[in-house]
């Protein structure tokens, strides 16, 4: 046939074209374009930017990554912190972006070529079946504003055409809105999120989130592709049974979650109603799946979701010789005698690199031809620990703990042993150590002798003897001088044993707290659970001591509950420092002292300082964050049961801290006694307390909503005979009034929540409802948002109320708040509509409530 090119020549031309493409890079890419096409590759510092400017694609180096390792990735273009959401060549970095090219290959695929490599093969390719397209000129790659990189025919609209390939079908560690985590029923392929290898290394890690391989509609977390360590539970059509916070619709937060199951595939996807919302799910290197919101005001990512909540269930989450503990300030710590292998990674919260020995084992020294054996390796006894994985049972000779120890010492690869009738040996690295477990075992960890007490030279022991003798002599001199004050000093020393700041909870003696509080003489507050007194250490540290009343728990149970509450740490929760439990009525709790007292003092009592709207808004947001932490971030959900201004304390900068959380649990949940003896609590009770329904965290949401109204108005929600309004009189009446010197007044009873709800429904201005002390000085948008949130919180139906996590998002402006309906039960209680005065203030007649 005339003009035909032989097959061999065709192949040669293709190779020549490929070489030309790699070496010259084709035509330069126009900066800001969103497309890679034939003759328009990507190289060096060039990047694609999506049409809406939300995402960018180009060469990048991860923060903390190794030099000379470059990746092609997608990140957010319009936020200040570079945050990769997809990496193409995560396991095949290139050395120099200036000589590398992301380009359309002759076969129609998007491919990455390393200019420093002698191979003509790409280091990464989309590997799509693009053979039906006429080579590279018939295909383009477009970066969409969803963060999806799409390979599509050049003649089509990439955003609407069926893609030949798309990055949303090849998720890395991040799941973006609109993406799918799917199962292909034709091929059986399961697409999930896979963590990075480390914080600075996007290589394929060990942790993955994916659909259950068994076919059930749930997510599972897997380690190493096989070991399941957490599951969401089945999808009910509305939420997951084991993760109810992930629901089909979030109500006020504006996102929707959907499960699709058809003949071709099954998948989950989610979206946000507001396109400007920046949210991402990440399979973190810690082994937890996390949800992050970008907060523009703080220019940072805000963590709003993390599972599993207990980091200790993550396999190898603390790496080799790392010890996991829920109660620690950090999830992981190195075992004694070990130090972090990568301190920089540990500082970033990535513990998977684990720990290394601080001192080499004597056995290893001898085997490597070093010094002769001076002192044998020793064992550190670790009590109440979960034994690590992969222990080997030694059969035969080990009939005692001593035999088991000798067997371990005789093997240089043996790292630890345990004996409980059988001898267990662990070799090389130890993983999944956990301390502080309730029913742990005893493990003996092999260390160099120098790492254990008593392993010092004779010279050092002599120095210690001399120093000890000198210390005894100095002590005798000091004791003779201070003999008169020795009793007082001894007690002060014992009381000052509290280590404030290390996260521990100290057990005090009753007489120590008597001493701190000057025999409980300075009372600073009180309530249904008892009275609060001010105490002071000799170093001027001030604390608040609460004497609990009416407790019915036993000693062991009380200590267990206090220990649990002592581990709860959050910037908006009052910190428990210690306790006393000596039987009878000698049960006390020691808290940090809040110099600005409780919120009710600033709202309802006349003080020299008027709490500004800005301060009130931060109080509302801080309390919401504290309650959200109690409900969702603790190992067990803690329901406060008594949210009100009296239990919100303010520190020196007027930052709020929720107090008395968990006390309902300490008194055995005898709520009927609490309700009848606690003043003001009736105004904050959710309807389910009266109807007898099960009490959930939504009861706290209701109480919080009632408190929001009081933050707005600066007064109690129910005030009888205290709200006055002037009656404008005619001129003749005015003359009479001038003569008589009296002005007519009337009183009314107002129920503020219903006033706010109706005003919102009528699209009215809520600013006239603001506390008069503020003189209208408030952000109108924030005020309206608070009023809407409050009305949603006090809905009669438990399901209609938002969670505290959703409330936080709403107050931070991350989600739009829909118009709330007027709660029906408020209308019933009121019995008649509200009246409006000439000056637009609303009130109720005395028989209205």
UniProtKB/TrEMBL annotation:
<dbReference type="Pfam" id="PF00069">
    <property type="entry name" value="Pkinase"/>
</dbReference>
<keyword id="KW-0597">Phosphoprotein</keyword>
<dbReference type="Pfam" id="PF00954">
    <property type="entry name" value="S_locus_glycop"/>
</dbReference>
<keyword id="KW-0418">Kinase</keyword>
<dbReference type="InterPro" id="IPR001480">
    <property type="entry name" value="Bulb-type_lectin_dom"/>
</dbReference>
<keyword id="KW-0732">Signal</keyword>
<keyword id="KW-0812">Transmembrane</keyword>
<keyword id="KW-0245">EGF-like domain</keyword>
<keyword id="KW-0675">Receptor</keyword>
<feature type="transmembrane region" description="Helical">
    <location>
        <begin position="465"/>
        <end position="484"/>
    </location>
</feature>
<dbReference type="InterPro" id="IPR008271">
    <property type="entry name" value="Ser/Thr_kinase_AS"/>
</dbReference>
<dbReference type="GO" id="GO:0051707">
    <property type="term" value="P:response to other organism"/>
</dbReference>
<keyword id="KW-0067">ATP-binding</keyword>
<keyword id="KW-0325">Glycoprotein</keyword>
<dbReference type="InterPro" id="IPR017441">
    <property type="entry name" value="Protein_kinase_ATP_BS"/>
</dbReference>
<dbReference type="InterPro" id="IPR000719">
    <property type="entry name" value="Prot_kinase_dom"/>
</dbReference>
<dbReference type="GO" id="GO:0004674">
    <property type="term" value="F:protein serine/threonine kinase activity"/>
</dbReference>
<protein>
    <recommendedName>
        <fullName>Receptor-like serine/threonine-protein kinase</fullName>
        <ecNumber>2.7.11.1</ecNumber>
    </recommendedName>
</protein>
<dbReference type="InterPro" id="IPR024171">
    <property type="entry name" value="SRK-like_kinase"/>
</dbReference>
<keyword id="KW-0430">Lectin</keyword>
<keyword id="KW-1133">Transmembrane helix</keyword>
<comment type="similarity">
    <text>Belongs to the protein kinase superfamily. Ser/Thr protein kinase family.</text>
</comment>
<dbReference type="GO" id="GO:0030246">
    <property type="term" value="F:carbohydrate binding"/>
</dbReference>
<feature type="signal peptide">
    <location>
        <begin position="1"/>
        <end position="32"/>
    </location>
</feature>
<feature type="domain" description="Protein kinase">
    <location>
        <begin position="518"/>
        <end position="814"/>
    </location>
</feature>
<dbReference type="GO" id="GO:0005886">
    <property type="term" value="C:plasma membrane"/>
</dbReference>
<feature type="binding site">
    <location>
        <position position="547"/>
    </location>
    <ligand>
        <name>ATP</name>
    </ligand>
</feature>
<keyword id="KW-0808">Transferase</keyword>
<keyword id="KW-0472">Membrane</keyword>
<feature type="domain" description="Bulb-type lectin">
    <location>
        <begin position="33"/>
        <end position="164"/>
    </location>
</feature>
<dbReference type="GO" id="GO:0048544">
    <property type="term" value="P:recognition of pollen"/>
</dbReference>
<dbReference type="InterPro" id="IPR000858">
    <property type="entry name" value="S_locus_glycoprot_dom"/>
</dbReference>
<keyword id="KW-1015">Disulfide bond</keyword>
<dbReference type="Pfam" id="PF01453">
    <property type="entry name" value="B_lectin"/>
</dbReference>
<dbReference type="InterPro" id="IPR011009">
    <property type="entry name" value="Kinase-like_dom_sf"/>
</dbReference>
<keyword id="KW-1003">Cell membrane</keyword>
<feature type="domain" description="Apple">
    <location>
        <begin position="363"/>
        <end position="448"/>
    </location>
</feature>
<dbReference type="InterPro" id="IPR003609">
    <property type="entry name" value="Pan_app"/>
</dbReference>
<dbReference type="Pfam" id="PF08276">
    <property type="entry name" value="PAN_2"/>
</dbReference>
<keyword id="KW-0547">Nucleotide-binding</keyword>
<dbReference type="InterPro" id="IPR036426">
    <property type="entry name" value="Bulb-type_lectin_dom_sf"/>
</dbReference>
<dbReference type="GO" id="GO:0005524">
    <property type="term" value="F:ATP binding"/>
</dbReference>
